[in-house]
Amino acid sequence: MEEEGSAFTAAAAAAAVPLLSYSNGSHHRKLNPSSAAAPPPPSLSVFLSEVWVETKLIWYIAGPTILTALLQFFLTFITQTFVGHLGTLPLAAVGIQTMVIGGIGFGILMGMGSALETFCGQAYGAGRLDLMGIYMQRSWVILFGTSLVLTPAYVFAGPILRLLGQSDAVAALAGELSLWLLPELFAFALTFPAQKFLQAQSKVMPMVWISLIAVGFHGLMSWVFIFKVGLGLVGAAIILNLSYWIIAVGQIVYIVYWCTDAWSGLSWLAFCDLGRFIGISIASGVMICLEYWTYMVLILLAGLLKNAELQIDAATICMSLEGFVFMIPLSFLAASSVRVSNELGAGRPRTAKFSVWVMVSMSVIIQITCTVIIILARNHFPLLFTSDKRVIAEVSRLVFFLSASVLLSSIQPILSGVAIGAGWQTMVAYINIGCYYLIGITVGCVLGFKFKLGLQGLWSGVIIGIAVQTLILLVITLRTNWEKQAS
């Protein structure tokens, strides 16, 4: 649409102004735009002052986003914790369903929804709030259509898992659970676009309160339905569905009544220009899914090893803990895509670049701290999920591989967020195919099956793939012409 395109070309004209004022929520700062001559290097005091100002801006977005992500992750975490005490088979079924069948829906919808980080972030940076509501509605249309396409994966989960080599007992129970969890798929289709819409405007605290209500409901009712009422896995699925829908409906209510500057109601414009939007959404979906599905493949391959139930349980516990810790850099991913897209949309490329390196530094420090805690608690945290001594021992043996994954995740998500904010999804999708699958999974299979290293060998391959992908993204980010990206 010509109106949409003009918003971004108009933003580039702002670079001619000698001094720009940037406002984000309650924060306000003065920024020098890019110019032909490079400015002299700042003094240490000026540099530290800029770091402090940028840190406050980042945490204004990332802080509540981290809380929201952790709270929403707690929904699955709580379910796995309760179900794990029903036995090793139910825990394995939940792990397979969450990482494989649920992972397909979650990964695709989250990835496709992240296209809004590019569109809404740049529209907000260019001052075109009127376009943001239209963009979100387009994403809803696309994600609901995608959910319908993904429905057969939930319906036929049992046969699919058996076809992938999983045991009959695990496949049957995971297939039954998938049928009950079908409503969560459509909740994701509403939730992810709404979250990106709010994040682009730095309106993230409402998401924290909505998620907190959902988690409180989920924890109490899961205990009642699973243990007191005795519904077991069925009870867990019912409450998980209700909790996700509480989040989806709560966010929409907030948008309709408290985001009137960017939301003007439902519009037929949501069905216009869908081709371009679908293209970016698919590229975003592929980019995110190729990352997320690496661990799905790891769980599937674990099911092909000897003592499959034990291996799946150990991998599920490690993946759950890593997923919990990963919410921190994942929130920095959201913050980096918002900051980069806002600043590029407003014609301030140097600020975008500066923000990236401040975030990378903070994330590395936080993840190193988390790694030390995981290593020290390696014989204790498995008790949250199981009392089986064999599973606990296997998890303890995997802790150093878990630590390596946590350390790599301190940088990689932020660089992916930069790619989303700058609109590089298609290029990164190709990089992910090569790194995660041609290198990571291939090496993992050789180590795990050929050299008989089991789950440790499989995970080693994944770590190598992530390391190569992180290095490539780091080189691309270092060599990026930010002035060209802004224009």
TrEMBL record:
One of its GO terms (biological process) is xenobiotic detoxification by transmembrane export across the plasma membrane. The chain crosses the membrane at residues 57-77, 89-109, 139-157, 169-192, 204-226, 233-257, 277-302, 314-334, 354-377, 398-424, 430-451, 458-478. The keyword tRNA processing does not apply. It comes from Stephania japonica. This is Protein DETOXIFICATION. It is found in: Membrane. Keywords: Membrane, Transmembrane, Transmembrane helix. GO terms for molecular function: antiporter activity; xenobiotic transmembrane transporter activity. It comes from the Eukaryota. It is a multi-pass membrane protein. One of its GO terms (cellular component) is membrane. It holds the Pfam family MatE. Belongs to the multi antimicrobial extrusion (MATE) (TC 2.A.66.1) family.
